[in-house]
């Protein structure tokens, strides 16, 4: 069965801290994605990766960076967390770039 | 950019009734997908319908696609309390690059 896991379900950080969110998939998918979800705004794409060490900016990359050193793992990094980055973060993976995506359970991040 | 928009924003029905949600989009697509999200969780893929298909079924779900009207509908028949969730459509379009664009979702509440 397909599985995408995220390192934390809930996270509380202080303004200015560096935050790492990790995502692991066990489906050998080429493509991985990071979204943030805010009430009334739906899902917004932050970054995606179509291969190891390859990445592409999504709609809202400012304040974020990503790392994909291994095929199964895609990390989202908040270089200096700010309160406006409080959100639900969702990771997903897919075999084909614009087809079915498999999502992790999400990480709810609170930045104080 | 809001390529896909769901309607209504919220829907409340009794158990056993049918629920219909609509999605409209702006530009030509290759496929349209529907996802479900239970409260505070990740999204789960329901159905993918391609631009050359008009209707698709999966269990109690029926999806239609009208490319001339740039719209899709998701029908859940004989709804159950467990169908209570948010439902999102996601579209791909060449002009949006290699990504899916999600709408803001319809919140469905099924009362028992």
Question: Could you characterize the architecture of this molecule?
Answer:
- The complex is a heterodimer of chains A (112) and B (112).
- Chain A has 112 residues and is mainly beta.
- Helices cover 0% and strands 57% of the residues of chain A.
- In chain A, the strands form two sheets. In chain A, strands 2, 4, 5, 6, 9, 10 and 11 form a seven-stranded mixed sheet that branches. A four-stranded antiparallel sheet of chain A has the order 1-3-8-7, with no helix packed on it.
- The radius of gyration of chain A is 13 Å and the shape is globular.
- The relative contact order of chain A is 0.33.
- The model of chain A has no long low-confidence stretch (mean pLDDT 95).
- Chain B is mostly beta strands and 112 residues long.
- Helix content of chain B is 0%, strand content 57%.
- In chain B, strands 2, 4, 5, 9, 10 and 11 form a six-stranded mixed sheet that branches.
- Chain B starts with a strand and ends with a strand.
- Classes of the chains: A mainly beta (112), B mainly beta (112).
- At the A-B interface, strand 5, strand 9 and strand 10 of A face strand 4, strand 5 and strand 9 of B.
